Task: structure prediction
Amino acid sequence: MLVVTGATGALGRAIVLQLLERHATGEIAVSVRDPEKARDLAELGIRVRRGDFAEPPTLAHAFEGASQLLLVSSNAASYGGDPIAQHRSAIDAARVAGVRRIVYTSHMAASSRSAFPPASERLGRPITRHVRSDDDLRAAMIGRGMPIRVIDVVLGLYRASRAAEFATVDPTLRHMLGRNPSSMRDLIAKTIG
Ligand SMILES: NC(=O)c1ccc[n+]([C@@H]2O[C@H](COP(=O)([O-])OP(=O)(O)OC[C@H]3O[C@@H](n4cnc5c(N)ncnc54)[C@H](OP(=O)(O)O)[C@@H]3O)[C@@H](O)[C@H]2O)c1
Result:
């Protein structure tokens, strides 16, 4: 059985729907924080069990019988949770449940040095670029009432972008797709001409 976490989120749900085209419903199960949000999946015959990375005991039940686990990283940092601890708990629970293969989505160009804590000429019109310092942005976001932990995530994203972390294309992607991946530049060109 293949268990998918985060199936009430954008990525997890899209993957479950893709899996349904290739596998019998009985081969797919989801582990979600709120089973009510996955009611439609249950109605399709998919096993829905509650699993919260922040409550490890729930994961034993949610991962029961899994041979493979798709672990969609949680957005815990944005609500004050510890994503690393959460994902460790999920991996530990998967091992105890006898999962043989764990696929983890992580984030682009993940590395221990990443600044991120857990696209012009094609438009045919001028684009003005204003550079604001991180301190300036931080002050503006605080002024708008954004929680500090969310600000840290957003500024980490900008720092990582400046360091070109997201420009990296991991060779694994080509292997998984069976073709060369499209670049963001190509995608934008195709979308807006
Ligand atoms: N979307 C992007 O552009 C992007 C970019 C880089 C990285 N990512 C990473 O990829 C992940 C998936 O993206 P997405 O767009 O699908 O995000 P999403 O729609 O926010 O989905 C996140 C999923 O994680 C689940 N989750 C949160 N905390 C959890 C916990 N403690 N235990 C179990 N599940 C938990 C959420 O459950 P609920 O439905 O109950 O909230 C939701 O199903 C994100 O969490 C983020 O780490 C996303």
Q: What stands out?
A: Helices lie at 10-20, 39-43, 56-62, 83-96, 134-143, 148-162, 171-177, 184-192. Strands lie at 2-5, 28-32, 47-50, 68-71, 101-104.
